[in-house]
TrEMBL record:
<protein>
    <submittedName>
        <fullName>dTDP-4-amino-4,6-dideoxygalactose transaminase</fullName>
    </submittedName>
</protein>
<dbReference type="InterPro" id="IPR015424">
    <property type="entry name" value="PyrdxlP-dep_Trfase"/>
</dbReference>
<dbReference type="InterPro" id="IPR000653">
    <property type="entry name" value="DegT/StrS_aminotransferase"/>
</dbReference>
<dbReference type="InterPro" id="IPR015422">
    <property type="entry name" value="PyrdxlP-dep_Trfase_small"/>
</dbReference>
<feature type="modified residue" description="N6-(pyridoxal phosphate)lysine">
    <location>
        <position position="182"/>
    </location>
</feature>
<keyword id="KW-0663">Pyridoxal phosphate</keyword>
<dbReference type="GO" id="GO:0008483">
    <property type="term" value="F:transaminase activity"/>
</dbReference>
<dbReference type="GO" id="GO:0030170">
    <property type="term" value="F:pyridoxal phosphate binding"/>
</dbReference>
<dbReference type="GO" id="GO:0000271">
    <property type="term" value="P:polysaccharide biosynthetic process"/>
</dbReference>
<feature type="active site" description="Proton acceptor">
    <location>
        <position position="182"/>
    </location>
</feature>
<comment type="similarity">
    <text>Belongs to the DegT/DnrJ/EryC1 family.</text>
</comment>
<dbReference type="Pfam" id="PF01041">
    <property type="entry name" value="DegT_DnrJ_EryC1"/>
</dbReference>
<dbReference type="InterPro" id="IPR015421">
    <property type="entry name" value="PyrdxlP-dep_Trfase_major"/>
</dbReference>
């Protein structure tokens, strides 16, 4: 039995709908980007997330860069980002000429540590940019107190969404992403900014379309091409209706895994109901990965190298400090298959093999 980590037939159940959407938009006289479907999708997200404004962009990385720019971040400013996680928060800062300041994470949840953030704030700090790791939300209340106390914005990167309505309630401006590996499972790329700050939202709208503010022939700011695709918007409007069902299945699979793994030596389960990613802490991570691979079970090692240890970011990292929790999490996290396409029998096989490995003392 082969059990892939990601669902191979990502949009198979909606294949005819997707093809129809492509044909309808391709044959229409309307725009291919930032049209009526994008406007409807943005309005639907506002309603679902309970925010005053939503701005769809071409990707999560570009959306983060646009939000930072709209927040006044520029050359030589500092942005506090997690030392563990994906590259976009640090990369978006560098794209603006700013300096990513790497803060350590909590060794259990793998999300940004508010105490370490507080120690790193300086007169040059212009934003705090946490990531919701493995769909586990950061302590936004604590981070907001730290950021507001220093007079800088908190910008939440939520590329891998939590269950529920877009990961809300939002305590700050957030960025959600819709790529293949994310909760929505798009056949392309896209992201959306959610915020209650109407001025910030308008600035992002201008920046995403070459700095144009209404007149298609006049740019009022230096912007970018980060316009949302109409096909993706129309498809996402449909996918929103199936989102609760998909996440419910993921949460139930994750709950089953956690029940089976409770008490296993060398294994720590993630927070309850944290789908659509299920990442274990495993003392002998690589041997377990190899054990499962030998039995046809796909897994994923998320972020095996902390960001400040990666070549492109090392030159910008604080050379006089370490990130022990980020190093630990990088060595111990293993993500298991968790998607709606898994059958109950496949889920049971995955759980059986993890238990078999742990009960054998971490040996195949």
């Amino acid at each position: 039995m082969k059990i892939p980590f990601r669902q191979p037939d990502l949009v198979e159940e909606d294949r005819e709908l997707l093809l129809a959407v492509v044909e309808r938009i391709g044959r229409s006289a309307g725009p291919f980007v930032l049209g009526e479907h994008t406007a409807r999708f943005e309005a639907a997200v506002c309603s679902s997330a309970g925010v005053r404004a939503a701005v769809a962009c071409a990707s999560g990385t570009s959306a983060l860069a646009l939000v930072l720019s709209a927040s006044g971040v520029g050359p030589d400013d500092e942005v506090v980002v997690p030392a563990y996680g994906s590259a976009p928060p640090a990369a978006a800062s560098l794209l603006l000429g700013a300096v990513p300041v790497f803060a350590d994470v909590d060794p259990v949840t793998a999300v940004l540590d508010p105490d370490d953030v507080g120690r790193l704030l300086t007169a040059r700090t212009r934003a705090v940019l946490p990531s919701h790791q493995f769909a586990v939300r950061t302590d936004t209340s604590a981070l907001r107190r730290v950021a507001v106390g220093h007079g800088v914005p908190l910008i939440e990167e939520a590329a891998v969404n939590r269950p529920g309505t877009f990961g809300g309630p939002w305590t700050a401006t957030g960025v959600l992403s819709f790529g293949r590996a994310k909760g929505f499972g798009l056949p392309g790329e896209g992201a959306i900014v959610v915020t209650d700050d109407l001025d910030l939202a308008q600035a992002v709208r201008v920046l995403r379309d070459h700095g144009r503010d209404g007149d298609p022939e006049v740019s009022v700011r230096i912007g970018a091409s980060s316009r949302f695709d109409e096909v993706q918007a129309a498809f996402l409007l449909h996918r929103m209706d199936t989102w609760p069902r998909r996440l419910d299945r993921a949460v139930r699979i994750g709950g089953y895994y956690s029940e089976r793994f409770a008490g296993l030596a060398g294994v720590v389960t993630p927070s309850p109901g944290s789908g659509p990613v299920y990442a274990l802490h495993v003392d002998r991570r690589d041997p377990l990965r190899d054990h499962l691979a030998a039995r046809g079970i796909g897994t994923h090692v998320p972020h095996p190298v902390p960001l400040p240890r990666q070549p492109v970011f090392a030159a910008h990292a604080q050379g006089d400090r370490d990130w022990p929790a980020a190093e630990l999490v990088s060595r111990t996290r293993l993500a298991l298959p968790l998607h709606p396409g898994l059958t109950d029998a496949e889920v049971e096989v995955v759980a059986d093999e993890v238990c078999r490995f742990a009960q054998a003392g971490g040996r195949s």
